[in-house]
Amino acid sequence: MPAKLTDQVKKEIEELVKDLNYHSYLYYVLDQPVISDEEYDRRYRRLKDLEEAYGYVLPDSPTLRVGAPPLEKFERVRHTLPMLSLENAFSHEEVIEFDRRVKRLLRTEEDIEYTIEPKYDGLAVEIIYRDGIYQKAATRGDGYLGEDITQNARAIRSVPLKIAGVKAPELVEVRGEIYMHIDEFEKLNREREKAGEPLFANPRNAAAGSVRQLDPSITAKRTLFFTCYGTGAAKGTEFKTQWELINWLKSARLPIPAMVRLARGMDEVIKAIIEIEEKGRTAFPFETDGAVIKVNDFSMRELLGEKTREPRWAIAYKFPAHRAITRVLDIVPSVGRTGVITPIAMLEPVRIGGVTVSRSSLHNWDEIARKDIKIGDTVVVERAGDVIPHVLEVLKEKRTGRERHLPVPSKCPVCGGRVVREEGEVAARCVSLSCPTQVVERIRHFASRGAMDIEGLGEKNLELLYEHNLIKEFPDIYKLKKEDILKLPRFAEKSSQNLIDAIENGKETTLARFLYALGIPHVGEFAARLLARNFRRLEDLYRVSPERINSIRQMGGKISNAVSAFFNDKANLDTLEELKGLGLRISNPDFKAGEKPLPLKGLTFVVTGTLPMPRKEVEEQIEALGGHAAGSVSKNTDYLIAGEEPGSKLQRARELNVKVISYQEFLGLIGKPTLF
Ligand code: IVH
After folding, report:
1. Which residues surround ligand 1 with Cβ inside 6 Å?
2. Fewer CB atoms near the end CB (10 Å): N or C, the chain?
3. Domain range annotation of the chain
4. Which is the catalytic residue, given 119, 162, 374, 649?
5. How many other C-beta atoms can be found within 10 angstroms of the C-beta atom of residue 493?
């Protein structure tokens, strides 16, 4: 029984919480502690003792940061507003081009005001505060659905448990990045090396790996930081500019980027970018792979709007790549899920920009021929930001004559099956459907996290199940019996039961995940969700035509053909039916009947002549609104949009009686006369 809470104890607890939170802010956010660690610990212990004795714990008590029980799994969280990504610029020229586009869209010639911030290389998250109290945290995930990391983000000391310093708004979703300092990353890897655990490739993976831990006590052991640069939904607070927003975040004692510059015009912007690059190399304790340039004024942002996944009002400038020289020790062919054989260069390990690189995909044999890469060659390897390292060029002058060329294998290195290179395709492919790697890889993908999410069906176990003839196709997963698993080496009573349970639990899924799981060529998570948004049930996709898929905005021809081919294959449909018969339950929360009006649906346009904006952008707009942008005029063309000096296409349109309209008329058609 807790002791009776007196006013005096209550007051002491409240003061201690406030005091400790303030000192934690001084320490972790401002990096300016005023009391010693020992003094902090002493006050913390006093609070902990009082809380235990009186059973009175405030929602923002620092003692809540640790001690939460491990989770079974991460729940999914739908973001109120999608968390967008950023377009990249790889040169100052591309940044200047971005500014030109902004001005053109805003129809202004005046210099635009931008903010420039370091691009933190971490894990994007959203943290929700209600009435100023820390409520929930979620990863960005795919931008729409993230994972609930409330417990883990709470363990990060620079994340305030309560908004202090300003009047707490009813709701604010703050967005930013969880990241790890470089020295912490190196320390962590040294420890892991000693313990024989796999190393993290870079601080970002280390941060993500630390946050995505079901057991919050592991997260709490790693020192992570948070910085915020934006908001999602908010109620009771409003900003007109990024600058205002950043200043509000700062007064609310939230951690803000290590440097934020306000600049007008491109000269100032470029200066700020260079400054960040310099600081990134010499002063910041974290890795930064670029600078983010954002239009400062929110009403301008409104006008500029966004593309599918990126806003038109911001761009990420990526710093030039890091390079290093090393040797190709070997080239090893590796077989993927679809049978494609990829040559991998095994490199003499070399440090590039804080990361050790020891292998690099050479993509295909055309690439090897083009760059003339041989085993034993000395090569320049490049690693740009988070991009996978690649071999840039061979230093031919270093050749000794002992280098060896690696021909396209005539047989699959895994199953000995036939290898073909189809007309017009660069990839060499093992065509044996029963190639073990392909079978195992296909099923591994099917069972993976973003797909059917069956824990315990990783590569090792799958190989085992495959070798023992227990799994060859998707349906076999659901036919597994506990007795069969028990017979396998490494499996005991409990582990077998766990696997059976995981498989059983995994039967409940969504259409988007299921479509992704099937491993249809070109259908990644994004395309799978797009399909789920447009087709209510799996059966609605049976025998679908490529045209029907193509009519979905953002779906390209390649995907349409692949999806249609998949759902017109009798054997595939049999497999799907068999899966349903085995008890798979597929819901579809993504389906949106008649989702967005697509005013141009079913209409084919051709764009010609000089328009107020690049032809490609007009075409993108047409596709985004459901229309089709074709390259040449035919009798199927509904409209020709003709700019100045239209040339032969206009002639052809007249011959075929195709309607010709101006760009202004086109804007009228889509009901958007103001923006451009
Ligand atoms: S703004 C719509 N600002 O970079 C604007 N993002 O490559 C979206 N990032 O998903 C983000 N530092 O995770 C913004 N100062 C910064 C950033 C930043 C890092 C990340 C963020 C985003 C990714 C895009």
Report:
1. 84-86, 117, 119-120, 124, 177, 229-230, 257, 292, 311, 314, 316
2. N
3. 7-22+31-63, 87-318, 322-409, 436-506, 509-587, 604-669
4. 119
5. 9
